[in-house]
Amino acid sequence: MTSASSQPAAHRPASGPARRTVVVAVGAAGFAAALTACGSDDGSSSVSSDAGASSGGSGAVLARTTDIPEGGGKIFKEQGVVVTQPTAGTFKAFSAKCTHQGCAVSGVADGVIICPCHNSTFSVADGSVQKGPATKPLPAEQITVEGDSISLA
Fold it and tell me: How many C-beta neighbours within 10 Å does residue 63 have?
C-alpha cells in the first residue's frame, strides 16, 4: 500500500476543497457582486439629490456646484460616478459604468453621457438610454448638495 505522499501529485487526495469548487465559489461571488452593482429593474436604486437638498451625507466633497456645467456633467473616475446638472441648480449622479458591457463612460456632451466602447448614450437628466446597444439606464447614485458642495452620500 502506498501513502498519499508517495503517490504522484495527480493521484494525491486533496486536503481542501477541489480546485473546481474554489473557482465556482469565487465566480459565483463575483457574479453576485456584479449584479448588486448593476442595480435592479424595479426602479429601487438610490435616488440622486436635487440642489439644496441635504440628507446629512458624510462623504467627502466630490465637487463644487460650479464644476458641473449646466446641461452637462463631470466624470469622477476614482469614485466611479458621473455628476450632471440637467437644468440650472438640479444635480444628479449616476454610475460611470455602462450597463451594456461595463465600460467606463468617457464624456458628457450635448445632454448625454457617452460610453466609448460601443457608443451607447444616456440622458444627463435620468440616466435613461438615449442610444444603444445598452438597454438599461445608468443606475442612480445618491449625492448631497449643501451650499456649493456636492458629496457622495
Answer: 17
The span from the CA of 77 to the CA of 103, in Å, is 12
Cell of 17: 476543497
What Å distances lie between residue 71 and 60, 85, 108, CA to CA?
Answer: 24, 6, 9
pLDDT at 17 over 70: no
Quick one: three-class SS letters along 60-114?
Answer: CEEEEHHHCCECCEEEECCCCEEEEEEECCEEEEEECECCCCCCECCEEECCEEE
pLDDT (0 to 100) of residue 132: 92
Terminal C-alpha separation, the chain: 65
In tens, the pLDDT along 22-71 reads 333 333 333 333 333 333 333 333 333 333 333 334 578 899 999 999 99
Q: Is 47 exposed, middle or buried (0-12, 13-18, 19+ CB in 10 A)?
A: middle
Do residues 120 and 112 make contact, with C-beta atoms less than 8 angstroms apart?
no
Say how far apart CA 85 and CA 49 lie, in whole Å. 11
Q: What is the pLDDT of residues 88-105, one digit of tens each?
A: 999 999 999 999 999 999
The angle subtended at Cα 138 by Cα 55 and Cα 115, nearest 5°, is 130
